[in-house]
Design a protein that fits this description.
globular, 8 helices, 8-stranded mixed sheet, single chain, 244 residues, Rossmann fold
Length: 244
């Protein structure tokens, strides 16, 4: 596998079928949340998928490889968009991943309306002006809402999705009501919520929601515990990650 490791970069083993990812620790590196989201998203083979806020491309790479689908990776930061493109090449997925360096707010205009089967998004968790203010501008963009807030992200997803298309998003539990409300108003009805428990003895801190454009009202609840009380990955998580 050929790759160019530049100053300040590292190469991470994704521990699945030889997939690798170049990252910039000084900017923003993916977390387990992105991997959980990619694995929980039920994407049909051959689907057209938009990855909103691709970062270094972890979700795009996993979904394109595992689901054999076409992914449009949307990323506002040029350096991160370039990393997504390089990671697509690194994993021989350039024909499956198309990178667009742009604001999510512009997605309906540039990607077109009603074209996508699925949108997957690991958004900034913190609203504008909240959380730490001692972050670099690049890291702050990844963690805090900027020009496109939660409502804007969901509105853009609703616009690019075809009828019955799905939005998969991971977010903090404390913002669940806001996510549900925004999705319902945008016409993509919340259909399932998976609570994520990091450990057996911890409270759920994040959730993955699936919303369907034009779907009927009604939400199914489920949960996943990632690690047991001994710190070992649960059987449920192993199956999800494909580590059985």
């Amino acid at each position: 596998m050929d790759y160019e490791l530049r100053d300040g970069e590292r190469l991470d083993d994704l521990q699945y079928c030889g997939l690798m990812l170049l990252q910039r620790p000084d900017l923003y590196c993916f977390t387990s949340d992105a991997v959980l989201l990619a694995n929980l998203a039920q994407v049909d083979k051959g689907s057209l998928v938009a990855d909103f806020g691709s970062g270094s491309g972890i979700i795009s790479v996993l979904v394109a490889f595992k689901r054999s689908c076409k992914v449009t990776a949307v990323e506002i930061q040029p350096v991160m968009a370039e990393l997504t493109a390089r990671n697509a090449r690194l994993n021989c997925l350039s024909d499956s991943i198309d990178v667009k360096c742009m604001d999510i707010a512009d997605a309906p205009k540039i990607l077109g309306k009603g074209n996508y089967d699925c949108v997957i998004c690991n958004p900034p968790y913190f609203s504008k002006g909240s959380g730490s203010v001692r972050l670099s501008p690049e890291v702050a963009l990844s963690r805090h809402e900027s020009s496109c807030d939660l409502k804007g992200i969901i509105d853009s997803a609703a616009a690019v999705l075809r009828p019955k298309g799905k939005l998969y998003m991971i977010h903090k539990v404390e913002r669940m009501a806001e996510v549900i409300a925004c999705a319902s108003v945008a016409g993509i009805e919340p259909k399932s919520i998976t609570l994520i428990y990091p450990k057996a003895d911890k409270e759920a801190d994040t959730f993955v929601i699936c919303c369907v454009k034009g779907g009927k009202a009604g939400i199914k609840l489920s949960h996943i515990t990632v690690y047991d009380s001994n710190g070992k990955m649960s059987k449920q998580a192993e199956k999800l990650y494909g580590k059985e």
